[in-house]
């Protein structure tokens, strides 16, 4: 598609000569396609189409029209004000676990060259996202807003596995062992279903990546972020499977009246589910971002195809070139439908994780930016020690050492069991430290990549301004200028994808400070 768009842009530039001007005049090509027409408007009765992805005839989306007045590009940076459930003007912040601070005010990012840029508020506003998504599903305009700050509360209060585990723990502590065994088995069944649901979500995201062409604009960035989301989900699945095996082992020892292991086990499982749901929300933001950018790119594809039809009628291009433009339009439209279906399926999967009905419709809110002040609070050594103290894996390994040491001294193989338990404890500590360090490094690497993406956006913004001057002078065609606008939208999308990636890494690090650590650390 990239080659097709570039070819179309080149063809548009070639139509600026005198002969081409005569061709435009003789054939009465619509004025909005004429780079020499000046400040023109759509002819009477032909209203400019503002719904992306559906340009036809003489219609053109207002955000692509250089002659439209006071038009805001849909991908323009949004403000730092986010909405709450009860108000459209009140800031709705959340507390990232382990920091005790409230993020929410976008700060600045410093590049390797020392340049300082402001960070954006992540994602699209509710109005902008609704504008695009309701094209596929008109009912989305009436959907409720799901805020990131709601995720943890919903999982802890409504997730079926969490509720089952709490009931199980209550039954254990009530010392009704027979009933507790039944409840434990039910909890195991619930966790198996949760693992299966999370695996289905990972498969859904992986499937969506097969529709993305890495050679097109934004394709490589989408694949990178999407793949990272799949890795995170798979890591959570592996962690929960380990927890499941441990839970099954504890079922055999249910008559042990020491409740502490069960309390810590269920707490760890609950935290894992919260973290998985938060990671899924961020993953959905990535899919939604990819969907919206694809819709924006379809605007250019539609405009290009309409122009190519006119040129074909003038005899300036071949049937094969027109068919190529038609194919690009068909492929883009197909990708939009596929991405929307993936987004819808993934949102339904998240609903189940939140203890909601899958069919319940909702919109995604923005997530806070990670500011330099937040990064400055990271302390590798202190944070790691705190995480190790709260890690369930290390706690379980320490318990194993204690149990081995408590064996009767006459027990055969007692010394070997003690050494084996000690080796496992050392291994658990080493793995935690290594994965924690990888997460620490990942946060700063994602921050560096964000600065690179922002520099690229600043460059593309300057290019677009230059192209606008050329267009005003009549030295390039409207189609070429539109291409520059699309390139700017893609560059800004890369900034938002990088911000989501940074936030995901930061969120994982903060959970690691609470002892909840994915098996492979940073992504």
From TrEMBL:
The record's listing under InterPro entries reads: TolC-like
Q: Which residues form a coiled coil?
A: 174-201, 230-257
Which positions carry the signal peptide feature in this UniProt record?
1-22
Residue ranges for the region (Disordered) are: 47-90
What Gene Ontology molecular function terms does this protein carry? efflux transmembrane transporter activity; porin activity
Primary localization class, coarse: membrane
Q: What are the subcellular locations of this protein?
A: Cell outer membrane
Q: Which UniProt keywords apply?
A: Cell outer membrane, Coiled coil, Membrane, Signal, Transmembrane, Transmembrane beta strand
Regions crossing the membrane: none
Q: Name one GO cellular component term.
A: efflux pump complex
User: From start to end residue, where is composition biased (Low complexity)?
Assistant: 47-57, 66-90
- PANTHER family given for it? OUTER MEMBRANE PROTEIN TOLC
> What protein name is recorded for this chain?
Outer membrane efflux protein
State the organism of origin: Butyricicoccus pullicaecorum 1.2
